[in-house]
From TrEMBL:
Keywords: Cytoplasm. Pfam families: BACK, BTB, PHR. PANTHER family: BTB/POZ DOMAIN-CONTAINING, BTB_POZ DOMAIN-CONTAINING PROTEIN 3. It comes from Nothocercus nigrocapillus. The lineage of its organism: Eukaryota, Metazoa, Chordata, Craniata, Vertebrata. This is BTBD3 protein. Its main location: cytoplasm.
Length: 522
């Protein structure tokens, strides 16, 4: 046998002398007839072989050494992309007989089998009836990637089926899981990540499940926090649950007004209404519960009447702390909503006004909410006869945190010349994009204290990214200003770093100026 390399050069020549069975039989008969033959002559000669090396010896190389990880030649690139696109799109088998030569590593060759009918020994019909998709699989690969698949195909109760129906998993999510098992690649999208997490949990693919949770945590916001809270409880992911509560507590009004709030289940609704640390007005909680009830009526195919809304809310209605509302909110909102009975409305009015208060089924104690933290970046403050003056110029500073927080507002210095009122336009930006802004007024009493100015809603701040805090003040009086500024401040469990901002045109920087405090929830 002559072995040649890809260039046609001789590598080795192997010569085998084989003893055929018939020849062995004939020789044995001949040997038995010769009685005077010695015992040594009756033995059969062993199989002989000879290796003749036609080239100088070289150190053996692995596939990775022979085929370094680099872009293949143009002719091969087109073929590789073509085959890869085929197996992603439509389960076609690879037509080329030598496709293995296009992929230098076992990982890449294994990835070719993803969503490919070539050598497939099982098929999955995935999705609910009417939206199913038939996907090919390879038992060995699947069993290596999932203990559930291993038990399904090689366990004691394994069933030898050519087709397996999976109606409770979305096709896109199942494909995402298969891609991880075959290709060692995690490909997640916002609209399928929850379904992918469900598939990863069902088939016990823990690393993919962890990646889904990390994806959800990084994309967590007030708009989807309530839905993710419901799902995190279903999937038993306590870390994700805690992150959801952090967002819901700090940005409660945004979360309650989001469309996602109406999609939660009844158990999650109850847990939110019970929440002691919701940072929201009670009238907002009340209106959110009514919005949920209206959508729940649609889910149950009920007419969204007042009676049916109250019916679907059930005992959860009494978790709304209506007596803790401001009197104006109750009189103009809850009392006229129709959701309360006449006796309930009368009793709550008496609760507000009477010395002897009636007993109520509603919780009357106000929620505690969240206590804001203050990060003070100056070690001292001062005032001078010509500083700190405001003529429509911007005071700005950049900051970054090491943990997710929610900026509720800024603490600002006031007048150094007695009582005065200032108009303040505050703004929070990230890479030039405005995340929050508000225009308000505050009154200073002439002391060196700081005075809070709030955003309409707390702004979510991600860790390890610099944000720009800015304020434009309008006032006739000079104010105090900070001195001996610090570049890093430890505030509870949160570390805040400061650096100068190019937006600052009124002199504020790290060492001195305005915006002495960041007010946040953590």
């Amino acid at each position: 046998i002559l072995m040649v390399d890809e260039k046609g050069k001789n590598m080795k020549c192997l010569t085998f002398f084989l003893m055929l069975p018939e020849t062995v039989k004939n020789r044995s008969k001949k040997s038995s007839k010769k009685g005077n033959s010695s015992s040594s002559s009756s033995k059969l000669p062993p199989v002989c072989y000879e290796i003749i090396t036609l080239k100088t010896k070289k150190k053996k190389k692995m596939a990775a050494d022979i085929f370094p990880r680099k872009k293949p030649a143009n002719t091969n690139t087109t073929a590789v992309q073509q085959y890869h696109q085929q197996n992603l799109n439509n389960n076609n088998t690879i037509p080329a007989p030598n496709w293995q030569g296009l992929y230098p590593t076992i990982r890449e060759r294994n990835a070719v089998m993803f969503n490919n009918d070539l050598m497939a020994d099982v098929h999955f019909v995935v999705g609910p009836p009417g939206t199913t998709q038939r996907l090919p699989g390879h038992k060995y690969v699947l069993a290596v990637g999932s203990s559930v698949f291993h038990a399904m195909f090689y366990g004691e109760l394994a069933e030898d089926k050519d087709e397996i129906r999976i109606p409770d998993v979305e096709p896109a999510a199942f494909l995402a899981m298969l891609k991880y098992i075959y290709c060692d690649e995690i490909d997640l999208a916002a609209d399928t990540v929850l379904a992918t997490l469900y598939a990863a949990k069902k088939y016990i693919v823990p690393h993919l499940a962890r990646a889904c949770v990390n994806f959800l945590e990084t994309s967590l916001s007030a708009k989807n926090a309530c839905v993710l809270l419901s799902q995190s409880c279903l999937f038993e992911e306590p870390d994700l649950t805690q992150r959801c509560w952090e967002v819901i507590d700090a940005q409660a009004e945004l979360a309650l007004k989001s469309e996602g709030f109406c999609d939660i289940d009844f158990q999650t609704l109850e847990s939110i209404l019970r929440r002691e640390t919701l940072n929201a007005k009670e009238i907002v909680v009340f209106e959110a519960a009514l919005n949920w009830a209206e959508v729940e009526c649609q889910r149950q195919e009920l007419t969204a009447t007042i009676e049916n809304k109250r019916k679907v809310l059930g005992k959860a209605l009494y978790l709304i702390r209506i007596p803790a509302m401001a009197l104006d909110d109750f009189a103009n909102g809850a009392a006229q909503s129709g959701i309360l009975t006449l006796n309930e409305t009368n009793d709550i009015f008496l609760w507000y006004t009477a010395a002897k208060k009636p007993e109520l089924q509603f919780v009357s104690k106000p929620r505690k909410g969240l206590v804001p933290q203050r990060c003070h970046r100056f070690q001292s403050c001062a005032y001078r006869s010509n500083q700190w003056r405001y003529r429509g110029r911007c005071d700005s500073i950049q900051f970054a945190v090491d943990k997710r927080v929610f900026i509720a507002g800024f603490g600002l210095y006031g007048s150094s010349c007695g009582s005065a009122e200032y108009s303040a336009k505050i703004e929070l930006k990230r890479q030039g994009v405005i995340l929050g802004q508000n225009l308000s007024k505050y009154f200073s009493d002439g002391s060196s204290n700081t005075f809070p100015v709030w955003f309409e809603y707390p702004v979510q701040i991600e860790p390890d990214t610099f944000y720009t805090a800015s304020v434009i003040l309008d006032g006739n009086e000079l104010s105090y200003f900070g001195q001996e500024g610090m570049t890093e401040v430890q505030c509870g469990k949160v570390t805040v770093q400061f650096q100068c901002s190019s937006d600052s045109t009124n002199g504020t920087g790290v060492q001195g100026g305005q915006i002495p405090e960041l007010i946040f929830y953590a």
